[in-house]
Amino acid sequence: MTGSVIWLICVCGVGLIFYAISVYAEKKTTPMWFVTGGLISSDVISDVKEFNRENATMWRNYSVVYFASGVLHFIDKPTAVIVLLFACTGGIVWLFWKHSKIMQKYKCEPRRKVTKKRK
Fold it and tell me: Would you say residue 63 lies in a domain?
């Protein structure tokens, strides 16, 4: 039982971190960056609010797997470990795939600044 509580605290703690990222992404007014660390300019995103909303949904969905693993450990320990391994391997691949789909959906040509011609 003690091991299950420790598992719950650790795994759900990780889930809370990803959930917190989703909350941050949803409230952000500039485009949400991804784990690769590169900043995304507002000029290349067609709808920043929707872009961030989809990013937030992506992070929330990813956090659910960690919460599920924490609860599953009380019911079936091997299944909880398998779910966690899936989150740490296939889940990361899914994050990169999903983020690339979001980028494709909202990426646009950079807006050009209008400058007056000199005579």
Answer: yes
Q: What is the domain count for the chain?
A: 1
Tell me whether residue 29 is in a domain.
yes
Task: Look up the domain containing 87 and give its range.
Answer: 2-106
The span from the CA of 26 to the CA of 23, in Å, is 5
Task: Return d(Cα 114, Cα 91) in angstroms, integer.
Answer: 43
What digits encode the pLDDT tens for the residues 57-76? Answer: 999 999 999 999 999 988 99
pLDDT at 93: 93
Residue 49: inside a domain: yes
2-54 pLDDT, tens digit each: 777 888 899 999 999 999 999 999 998 888 888 766 777 888 888 889 999 99
Q: In sequence order, which residues have a C-beta less than 8 Å from that of residue 96 and are 6 or more positions away?
A: none
Residue 16, in any domain of the structure: yes
